[in-house]
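Q: What residues go here?
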């Protein structure tokens, strides 16, 4: 979630990977942070992942976040073309929605229902219009094939305070973790 297209979206990261993981040649392992503040959701996420692994073998949880688009807000048409967005399967678990929330993929309208699990190719143009007074809430799960992590990976349980203590990261306006460059 960045500014611009998704400026009205709020994000609560549960699992997160550093923006520079692809360029980290000196590391022997990639750290995937799990924020212990949301440990109560880890089993829920793992249970969903255990279902998804039937369709996406050899994948790991890469990034996981709750996202909220408030009522009467939009996500403008965009593609997610950064390197880290080109590898994963982006899975949307619809937590809260209604018939007035329209998700456009290549200008084709979709109305996803609560409880549905949908893969979105985020490299294609997509947008959302929430034409209701209610929040739309999705659990976003990015799965990545383990072959894209040749150095291996480890889940590292941290707190938000721990991650931000070194001042290399901050929360963006919408809640997405940003790296200070």
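A:
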């Amino acid at each position: 979630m960045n500014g611009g297209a998704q400026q009205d979206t709020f994000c609560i990261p549960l699992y997160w990977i550093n923006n520079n993981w692809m360029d980290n040649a000196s590391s022997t392992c990639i750290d995937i942070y799990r924020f212990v503040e949301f440990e109560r959701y880890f089993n829920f996420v793992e249970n969903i992942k255990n279902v998804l692994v039937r369709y996406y073998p050899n994948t790991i949880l890469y990034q996981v976040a709750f996202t909220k688009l408030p009522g009467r807000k939009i996500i403008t048409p965009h593609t997610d073309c950064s390197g880290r967005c080109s590898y994963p399967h982006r899975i949307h678990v619809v937590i809260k929605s209604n018939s007035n929330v329209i998700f456009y993929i290549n200008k084709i309208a979709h109305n996803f229902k609560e409880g549905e699990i949908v893969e979105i190719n985020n490299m294609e143009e997509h947008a959302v219009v929430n034409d209701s007074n209610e929040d739309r809430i999705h659990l976003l799960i990015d799965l990545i094939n383990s072959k894209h992590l040749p150095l291996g990976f480890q889940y590292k349980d941290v707190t938000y305070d721990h991650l931000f203590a070194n001042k290399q990261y901050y929360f963006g306006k919408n809640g997405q973790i940003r790296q200070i460059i």
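A: Context that may help when evaluating the design: Residues 19 and 60 are 17 Å apart (CA to CA). Residues 4-179 form a domain with the Jelly Rolls fold (CATH 2.60.120.10).
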